């Protein structure tokens, strides 16, 4: 048996983890038109004292809701443009489901807004600027995405699970309700 010392394999130059692709599909010219409307809402909102975010909800080529960031004006940290647009669209359509709709937003939805669009059952989301543009402007979208990717035990905001007696009572009450409205 012969000992051989293999030449150390060349250490590949570390490749930085690529930023995931911004979207899962390419936008269309029609998308560009609605995005421009969302961007205009966002820019106008800055002039009116709001945050630099705007969104429009479109169903069958028609705007059914619009939103601008109203966090500071309305003293509402959840008044993000997409949330506002969802509320506006749902009020206009008299529904809590936006199935069949597309959300056009001036900037990549933050985790709150992405979850809100999922809850609203929106079909598709199209955005213009991204989380990195938002970060450069001082917003935490990118930081929150990074946080969600981390173990919760490392968060500066403790999230405490404490299963008190009756913790499952609301869910049992819901399941016992024969005429519950599913959403
Ligand atoms: Zn948001």
Automatic annotation (TrEMBL):
Biased composition (Pro residues): 11-21
Composition skew (Low complexity), residue ranges: 1-10
Residues in CMP/dCMP-type deaminase domain copies: 29-142
Biological process annotations from GO: purine nucleoside catabolic process
Keywords for this protein: Hydrolase, Metal-binding, Zinc
Highest taxon of the lineage: Bacteria
Molecular function, one GO term: guanosine deaminase activity
Ranges where the record places region Disordered: 1-29
InterPro entries from the UniProt entry: CMP_dCMP_dom (IPR002125), Cytidine_deaminase-like (IPR016193)
TM regions (residue ranges): none
Family: Belongs to the cytidine and deoxycytidylate deaminase family.
Classification via PANTHER family: CMP_DCMP-TYPE DEAMINASE DOMAIN-CONTAINING PROTEIN (PTHR11079:SF161), CYTOSINE DEAMINASE FAMILY MEMBER (PTHR11079)
Protein name from the UniProt record: Guanine deaminase
Species in which this protein is naturally found: Cellulomonas marina
